[in-house]
Specification:
The protein is mainly alpha-helical and about 90 residues long. The chain contains two helices and no strands. The radius of gyration is 20 Å and the shape is rod-shaped.
Length: about 90
């Protein structure tokens, strides 16, 4: 098993940032998607369709990034706990 050398507090802080990042991705992706749908009621031309296509592709990638962030965060928190337990008490 590989040995991890890390500050457990830094792991926890980064895990917290990853969770917030994932929430932000979800929020802003949903916000832009909603705006696109509303705008699509009155704006339909080649630029709209092209942006809609690019946005849809990017939204899939952003969703995958958000999921990966949500999956990694608990592992970092768990590693921080293990490091805390193995550190000598001063």
């Amino acid at each position: 098993m590989p040995v991890a050398y890390a500050d457990p507090q830094h792991l926890r802080e980064f895990a917290h940032k990853l969770k917030a990042f994932a929430q932000d991705i979800d929020h802003y992706t949903n916000t832009v998607n909603g705006g696109m749908r509303r705008l699509g009621e009155s704006w339909r031309d080649e630029y709209y369709y092209r942006f809609e296509e690019v946005f849809a592709e990017a939204a899939v990638m952003l969703h995958e990034l958000a999921e990966a962030s949500r999956e990694l965060a608990p592992h970092l928190e768990h590693d921080a706990e293990i490091i805390d337990k193995r550190r000598p008490i001063k």
